[in-house]
Structures are given as structure tokens and as C-alpha cells.
Amino acid sequence: MRDTAGTQAKPVRMERPRSQWRDVWDQFKTHKGALVGMTVLALLVAFVVIGPFVWHEEKLTTTQTYLNKNKPPSLTYPLGTDHLGRDFFLRMMEGGRVSIAVGLVAMTISIFIGTTVGMLSGFFKRLDGPLMRLTDLFLSLPLLPLLLVMVMLFRDALARIFGPELGTFVLIVIAIGVTSWMPAARIVRGEVLALKEREFVLAARSLGTPNRRLILRHVLPNVVSPVMVAATLDIASAIITESALSFLGLGFPPDFPTWGRLLFDGLSYMQQYPERVIWPGLAISLTVLAVNYIGDGLRDALDPRIRGR
Amino acid sequence: MKLRSALMGAAAFTALASAAWAERGADGHVNVLYWQAPSILNPYLSSGTKDVESASLILEGMAGFNEKGEVFARLAESVPTVENGGVSADLTQITWKLKSGLLWSDGTPVTSADAAFTYEYCKHPEGGCAQAARYEGIKSIETPDDLTVIITFDAPKPNPYQAFVGGTSPIIQKAQFQNCLGAAASTCTDQNFGPIGTGPFRVTEFKTNDTVSLEANPNYRDATKPAFATMTIKGGGDAEAAARAVMETGEFDYAWNTQINPDLQAQMIAAGKGTLLNGFGTLVERIEMNMTDPSPDLPEGERSTPKHPHPFLSDIRVRKALSMAIDRQVLVDVGYGNAGRATCNLVPAPELYASDNTDCLQQDMEGAKALLDEAGWTDSDGDGVRDKDGKKLSVLYQTSTNPVRQDFQALIKGWWNEVGVEVELKNIDASVYFGGDAGSPDTFQKFYADVEMYANNFDGTDPEPYLAQYLCDKIPGPDNQWQGENINRFCDPAYDALVKELATTADMAKRGEIAKKLNDMLTKDSYTVVALVDRGRLSAASNTLGGVVLNTWDTELWNAQDWFRVK
Fold it and tell me: Which of A79, B31, B47, B308 is 20 to 30 A from B142, comparing alpha carbons?
């Protein structure tokens, strides 16, 4: 017999269950540095993505542009013009697009590879040896000659598929990603080795949790914090590596400004026009710093032991 | 009073006297900065400018080149010519006579045997002589007496001033080097680091890749020279730091090769401690047009070979239009300032060989557009890029990585875009681009691009070998491992015939005429080579250093014996 009285009982008011991500956001909000970092990064992204559409340079011929060279900052040219008369403000926006995109994408690739390799070698004893030797192998490879070979072998092929600019982009982010995942792998492996002996992992294992869930649900969230730190550092080094590549002529076509290239171009004029080094340098530093703070905040927010305190 | 004024008078007189009759070693010490440090003082074992030039203070040849590119006698009595009988009428023999009484810095006499030994030393098949080219085509060297050297050539040599002329082929002492022949050459460290010479200075200490300490040669043939008792050549740093050391801080008296950007040049001149010396040689920055098709769709081994003519650059109107759209003076101002001048010539100097071709100096955008219209390239789909038969007028423009070249690329791309030509830029690391590796697709010889930019010059004062680079059979290709010098794949039987004529002509005026014609065939008649800037040498000298004359035909230290301290 079914008890029908229950249907007449007053519904109990229940708090809506809080989602985990909401908790994370609440915790994240309390980190002032992270909030500032996020605002700065958002502004920088808006500057480089929306900027060039809003900011229209007047159309000048090459010779007219050249006559405008080395202008100090003014209303028409907020950051002045360079030694060929090009609007430095516009070049900063265009350069930032590439630099930020390269930094983020290359970081994603390198963290993805690094975490995967580190997780597998930390978790599965049999894979540990081969994967770590592979990591050592990559660490001992000299980066620039390797990139040189990669660029020589694949540039034309990729340029034919994606066009010269996108092709270079794909090549560069992959090249940087593939050559910079090793520190992340080592960090993750170390963390995983310690974590998998912890009680909660043992408990989960004794409940019969399959490896895949064990990794994704129990181990991965706990290694997020060191990975975040590694990731933020990776963005910085990716931006710098890209500029080194462009400087060597292995990167983007020379008429394609990036912050790194602007920085290098400015070097020879550093004495007379220090701002040409300061602006791109500042932009790179701000991006890196902002990402660092966001990483810091995320780490705290994602760590269940800190959250809610 | 009387005594005092007499003393003053005497003092004044001495001062005047020392100025008028300079004395060896009277002016103390001079500091020279070579930012690429010398690593050896034997020019036969290094082709580096820094090594050849520092060695030229110690070692000398029979003759040298002055700042006008003319040959003047050093160890020789006089310069042999056909007129004075020193060169045989059939151009196969030259006779050098040494000055009598010449001594090496160790006090032993200089003889013709030393010259003959020098030839033997450099021609030794195992020696790896870096200057072997200067002794090419010599059949034999005879020394009938102690002062006479007779060189016999395989074939008539219209320009016999190769062996023993200039800083790259000095005479070395037989007694010192006789055990250093062939494979032993590079093991003779003492000899290579401290050669005994006839020049104004001799080595006292040599620290590889760092410092050369020198003192006046006591046996130098002019008893009043050099004015400086000691000299230091210091290495290290870069061009900018070197210029600063002379022009701003005054720590050094002379700095070699101070190529810096025009803004910096102006700033350093304003500091007022020194001057930037410029001299123009034959180094020309140019755009080379590819006469063959570099399309990646062609099978490897056929790209950029004469099998496939270029789809649009084989039309002279397109090449001319591209040249007309360039404002060369702007390029000079951006890239070189004092150290450059606009030119249309492949051979801009010496005067005898320089064509009066100047019609490219004026930029003509409208003319370029009209010419492209005439050639059938019009913008039919309104996207700003000209096209013809469904093919876009789009060029790939490559060069080496170098800030000035990238500025040039940006400017030239701008102008070409304005006349409706789409431009894709590419820059390649210089060590790859000029590396000559037949396996790399990015070398300038392979020329897998439509146009490319670099600079080149010729050694010495005679442009014949340089102009002979554009012969049909010098086209680089897979069959010769891409080692030819005819980068443009230019081929004109009339040109080949004229080069042959030049090789058999001895009369200087006639040679000049032919060379000018050859130059014009490559430049204003065909626009195969689009010359942009004649790049000079730029070196810095302190205001207190006198007697410096920049020479682009020989070593920069060619007249260090005449340098003095300005008081």
C-alpha cells in the first residue's frame, strides 16, 4: 500500500545546490591580485582584438608615411611614429594579437603535453622509465637548431596549406609547444607520485574506481596548482621564444609585427627613443604578470583545502 | 728677460721643427679598435678582414692600392706597366724590381727569394691558402737576381696587379716561414702570430682574439716614420660600442667598420670628439630579379631553372616598373645615412668603370603604373592587385635577416603595393641564406623567390671577374650543386661575347668602355639587376688623429705610417 499522505505534505524549501564552479568563482573573487590581473588581461585582449577596428590610421602613401618618421606622441599618433613613419600605437595593437595568441596557444599545447606525459609516467609505473627518458631527451635537445630544422622542413608545406601567415602561426605554436613541455611533465610526475599514495586515492581505489576516473576526478584537480604556475611561466617564455625566432628570421614574415619583434627593432634606437623598447616590453611584462596573478588566484580557488577559508 | 724670451723662442722653434721634420716614434701611443678581434696575423691563413688588415701593419707587398684605387709602389721601385716595359706587350709577363737596401724588421735584407717563396707557400696544395685567388694563372716566378721578380702567366693577363699587390698578398720572410709549408702552415703558431715584416710596425705581443701590441719597426724604410712609437689593436664589442669609444668617450683613436644607423650617426657626430669617415667601394645593395619560375608547383630540380621562364618577370616592362617605383634616396636615409648613396649601377666604382647611368634615381610611380598597364597587367577585379589572364601580380621578396634589410623590405613593399603589386616578404637567417648549402631551399643561389635582395662587391679594382659572373654557363642549378654565380639566371649571347672581348683587351680606356656597356646591359637595358644603394665603409677617427685616409680598395690601415697626433 502506498502512502498517499506524502503528496499532500508541504514541500520542504531547499537551498539550491551550489555548483562547484560557483564556489571556485567565489573564492577567486576574494583574490584581489587575480581580479586586477584578469581586468588587465581583458583590457589588453580588448586592446589588441577590438583596437585595430576602432583605431583607423589615415591612409598615406609609403613616401608620405616615411616623411612622418620619428614623430613624438600626439593626438594622431598616441605613441608617436617609428623610424619609417608607421603609427606605433597601431603596430602595438597588431603586434599584440600575434604575441598573445602565440603565448596562449603554445602554452595550451605545452601544458597539455606536459600534463599528459607527467600524469602517465607518475601514475603507471611501467610507463615511468620510457616517458621520463623521453623527457630527458627533449630537455637535452638544443632548442634553436631544432626549431631551425623544423622551420626549414615544414614551413613551405604548412604555408601551402594555411597560407604564409597562418602557416607560420601553426608552425611556431607547435614548435614552441613541443619544445617546452618538459618542466611541466616533471612537476606533474612528482606531484602524482606523492598523490597516488595518499589516503583518499587509496580509498577511491578500494571502492573500485577505474583508473580513468581516478586520474580525472581525484588526481588531476590536485595537481592543478603547480600546473597553473608552470602555465603562466610558459606564456612568458612562449612570447619571448617567438620574438627570438622572428629575430632570427624563422618566425613571421618581417612585415608582420609582434611585440617581440618590436622590442628587438627598438633595441638599436634605445638611446634616442627609449619608448620604442619600453612600450612592447611593458606590454609583454603586463601580460605575463596578469596571467601570473590569474594563475595564482585560480590555484587558490581550485584547491579544495583553501577554498571556503 | 732676454734669456727667458730666448728660451721661449727655442722652445717654439723645437715645436715647429718637430712638426716639420717628424721623427719616428715622436707621437707616443695610438689605440685602434677592431670590434672583430684579430685571431691570426698571417693573411694567407685567414680571409677575415680583421686579420688581413691588422697584418697589413706588419707585412707589405710590392705595391698597394691608394684611396682612388690606383696602384702605388711599396716595396717595389716603381709600378711596372706596359709603357715602362715592366709588363710585356703580350700581357703574359710582369717584372717587379725591389727597392735596394730594404731590411726585414729583424735586420736581414729583403730579397726576391722571399717573393718567390711567398708564391710557393700560398700555392702549396696542402697549405689551404686563403688568398690563392691572387696567385691564380701564374705559370712561373723567376728571380734572376736578388732584386728582380719576373712573373709569367699562363695566358694574357690584362690586370697583372694581383700577386704581391695589396694587403691580401704581402711578401713573407723565407727564413721565418720555410718550415711552415703545406700541412705545417697552421701549426707554426709563433710565425703566424708574430710574422717578421717590412711594414711600419712590428708585433711585441699577440693575444689571440683580444689584443695586438705593436711598436715602430726600427728598420722601416722611411727613417722619419711612423710617427707613433707604439700601437695597440684591441678587439671586442660591436660596431655601436666601437663608434662610441671613439666619437663619445674618446678612449680610442680609430675604430674600424662602425656601421650604425643614421640617427645614431648624427648623434655621435654631435658629440664632437671625432669624425665618421666614409669611403665608397664597390659594395652595392641590389634587388635581383629571377628570370626563371620559382613556383613550388614545379618538381624539385626544375624550380628556378632556365627550363621554365618566369611567368611575369621575364617581361622587361614589369621589371622596369618595379625599379621605377623605388625611391632610392629614402632607402639611403633610412638605412645608411653617411655610409650610403643611391645608385643605378652594378659597378659603381672605380671611376674608369662606372657608367653614368642615373635615370633610376628619380622615383616615378605614375610611369610605373602606366608601364604595367601597357604590359597588360590591370586590376580587373578591383581588389587592388593587378592581374592578367587570371593570374595575380604577386611577388615573393626574400632577403637575409638584418634590421636595415627588413626596413628596406617594408618600404619597397609599400611602394610596390601602391602600383598594384602584391608582395609577400620573407627573411632568412644570414648563415643559411649565404651558407651555400645545396640541400637547403633557402639559399640565395637557389633563389626560390621572385626577387631577392643582398649586397655584393668585387675584390680589387678590376670588375672583369665580377661581370663574368653573369655568363650563361654560370647559372646555378641542380647539375652544379647550385654553385653558379649568375643568380638571376640571366643569359644573353651578346653579353657573353662582350665579356670575352673584355678578357683580351689591355687598353684601360677600352676596358672601361666595355665594362660600362656590360653594366648597362644588366641594369638600365634589362633591369635584371636593380641596384639600390652603393654602400660605403664607415669608420670612426678621433679628432686628435691626423693623416687618416679611408681606403676602400686596400686595407683601412694602408697608410698607418703617415698617421700622426694632432697637437
Answer: B47
Q: What angle do CA B65, B70, B73 make, to 5 degrees?
A: 60
Q: Is B418 at the interface with chain A, CB within 8 A?
A: yes
* Spatial separation of the C-alpha atoms in residues B333 and A304, rounded to whole Å: 63
Backbone angles phi, psi at B481, to 5 degrees: 55, 30
Q: Are strands B254-255 and B274-289 parallel, antiparallel or unpaired?
A: unpaired
Q: Which of A65-69, A123-127, B466-470, B525-529 has the lowest mean pLDDT?
A: A65-69
> What 3-state class would DSSP assign to B147?
coil
CB contact under 8 A, B418 and A62: yes
Q: Using one digit for the tens of pLDDT, what is the confidence trace for A30-86?
A: 888 889 999 999 999 999 888 888 877 677 787 888 887 888 888 888 888 888 888
Establish if B400 touches chain A: CB-CB under 8 angstroms.
Answer: yes
HSE value, Cβ hemisphere, 13 Å, CA-based, for B425: 27
Q: Does A152 touch chain B (CB under 8 A)?
A: yes
Domain ranges of chain B: 1-41+199-280+537-567, 59-196, 284-459+523-535
Whether B414 sits inside 8 A of A160 (CB atoms) is no
**Cα–Cα distance for residue pair B239/B363, rounded to 1 Å:** 32
Cell of B484: 653558379
Asked whether this complex has an ipTM greater than 0.90, the answer is: no
Nearest CA in chain A to B433: A249
A268 contacts chain B (CB < 8 A): yes
As its CATH architecture, domain B59-196 has: Alpha-Beta Complex (3.90)
Claim: this prediction has a pTM higher than 0.90: no
Query: For B29, which DSSP code?
Result: E
Determine, for residues A269 and B415 on separate chains, whether the beta-carbon distance falls below 8 Å: no
Question: What's the CATH superfamily of B1-41+199-280+537-567?
Answer: Periplasmic binding protein-like II (3.40.190.10)
Q: Find chain A residues with C-beta within 8 A of B261's C-beta.
A: 83, 268-269
Whether the CB-CB separation of B564 and B546 falls below 8 Å is answered with yes
Q: Nine-digit cell at B149?
A: 721578380
Instruction: Answer whether A247 sits within 8 Å of B401, measured CB to CB.
Output: yes
The answer to whether B441 contacts chain A (CB < 8 Å) is yes
